[in-house]
Design goal:
Elements: H1 21-28, E1 32-36, E2 39-42, H2 44-62, E3 66-67, E4 73-75, H3 76-82, E5 93-96, E6 102-105, H4 110-118, E7 129-138, E8 153-163, H5 166-186, E9 192-195, E10 205-212, E11 218-223, H6 243-249, E12 254-256, H7 262-268, E13 272-287, H8 289-293, E14 297-299, E15 305-307, E16 309-316, H9 317-327, E17 329-330, E18 333-334, E19 345-349, H10 355-370, E20 375-378, H11 384-394, E21 398-402, H12 404-408, E22 411-416, E23 422-426, H13 427-435
Parallel strand pairs: 3-7, 19-20, 19-21
Antiparallel strand pairs: 1-2, 4-6, 5-6, 7-8, 8-16, 9-10, 10-13, 11-12, 11-13, 13-16, 14-15, 17-18, 21-22, 22-23
């Protein structure tokens, strides 16, 4: 993609309403624009990151479940069945359609998926089931803030499990536990699993997954080993007994807010890590909370009716864009991990119109694109300083700088955004480096 044709409305100044790093940088980097309080348009650069994160989430969910799509607007009667319509609170956006039917913009989908299941599944032979979708949600926050970190409209992956008994339900829970750790590590995030309160979702077993960040909404304490754990090191057989793996992942101390234990933390001494953290995922086992209320039953092996066991599993996909930035930035701008970067490489032409520079840029661009590398080529007529500043701001992992002095020697400069290291090498070597 040539930057002269790409819609990238960057800002030099930080808008006054942006209170945290990710909000400031997403606005300045031309990733989002506010439509109304807590609701944003995703511009091309931001949308590319959003889709990268969504795809990683999808790939890990596909290992254990099946994707579907449920509507954003749900009938209120479903929520009346579960008892949550009046209990959920003012965060739910309630709507009346032209036929005077009560509707709502879904903040979550437990009721909708339970209806689909109960109308479709009759026998224990059809269990277990793990279904998920990636869909926009709406929660009418009283004070939306921090950009996409706490907006009213957000993109979420929510999965739902249906099992015959507790042991099978626990296995489904464990599958999602591991899938979450793999998902976040693929995004270069160090996510720590912590026991958590279930909140309005309900249930008696719950973990949230957090990453350390100064702007986090909760205070956490954990064993330092969690920061170095490799969740993807061992091959995972999702059909096997996963409990020993889960036990290994959760053996050390990790607690958030009101679950913290001052005595346990004191005993850890130098092994204790404390700080603020951002929640990036939450999983819940809630047994028969919804299936009993909504009559989701199957015929068991003995011919008797069995009320199924359920769980739900959420990841804030749009929230993760902000979370990655909170975890990976510097004073100059964003530093994207390669798996979620909008482009892997940015090419900077320091002298557009110079035949040698133009040819070197075109050759580099063509070779990288033909190798399947996503490239943003800054071919604008602009000052070198502005080009460098914009490229650092948007945070692409690699920069290739092409200027007259280097080209005279047959060299281009390659820069790693994270390390800041620069090296002059030939165009062929640069292409080989970036495609290896």
């Amino acid at each position: 993609m040539r930057l002269s044709r790409f819609f990238l409305p960057t800002l030099k100044e930080t808008p006054a309403e942006a209170q945290i790093v990710s909000h400031r940088l997403m606005l300045r980097a031309g990733m989002i624009r506010q439509s109304s309080a807590g609701i944003y348009s995703w511009l091309p650069l931001g949308f590319r990151v959003l889709k990268k994160i969504e795809q990683i989430v999808r790939e890990e969910q596909d290992r254990i479940g099946q994707e579907m799509l449920m509507p954003t607007i749900q009938p209120a009667d479903l929520w009346r069945e579960s008892g949550r319509y009046d209990a959920y609170g003012p965060e739910m956006l309630r709507i009346t359609d032209r036929h005077e039917r009560d509707m709502l913009y879904g903040p979550t989908n437990e009721e909708q998926i339970t209806q689909i299941f109960r109308d479709s599944v009759r026998s224990y032979r059809d269990l277990p089931k793990m279904l998920y979708h990636i869909q926009w949600k709406f929660r009418d926050e009283v004070r939306p803030r921090f950009g996409v970190m706490r907006g009213r409209e957000f993109l979420m992956k929510d999965a739902y499990s249906f099992d015959l008994d507790y042991n099978e339900a626990r296995h489904s829970y464990n599958q999602q536990f591991i899938a979450y750790l793999r998902t976040f590590q693929r995004m270069a995030l160090k996510a720590i699993p912590m026991q958590a309160e279930s909140g309005p979702i309900g249930g008696d077993m719950s973990h949230e997954f957090v990453i350390l960040a100064e702007t986090g909404e909760s205070e956490i304490g954990c064993h330092k080993d969690y920061l170095g754990m490799d969740w993807t090191a061992a091959g995972i057989d999702y059909a096997s007994d996963l409990q020993p793996i889960i036990d290994g992942f959760t053996a050390k101390y990790a607690a958030t807010d009101d679950k913290r234990d001052a005595k346990a933390e004191k005993a850890l001494a130098k092994d204790l890590v404390t700080g603020r953290a951002i929640e990036v995922g939450h999983i819940f086992y809630f047994g028969k909370k919804y299936s009993k209320a909504m009559n989701a039953i199957v015929t068991g092996p003995d011919g008797n009716d069995v009320t199924v066991e359920m769980g739900s599993y959420g990841i804030g996909v749009s929230r993760l864009v902000g979370a990655v930035i909170e975890a990976s930035h510097d004073d100059a701008g964003i530093i994207w991990p390669e798996p979620v970067a909008p482009f892997k490489v940015g090419i900077i032409n320091l002298k557009p119109g110079d035949k040698a520079c133009d040819k070197a840029c075109e050759d580099t661009y063509d070779n990288l694109v033909q190798s399947g590398i996503e490239v943003l080529y800054d071919d604008r007529e602009a000052r070198a300083g502005a080009k460098f500043a914009d490229m650092d701001l948007i945070g692409l992992p690699w920069q290739v700088v092409v200027g007259p002095r280097g080209i005279e020697k047959g060299l281009v400069e390659i820069k790693g955004r994270k390390s800041g290291e620069r090296q002059e090498i030939s165009i062929l070597s640069a292409v080989n480096r970036l495609t290896s």
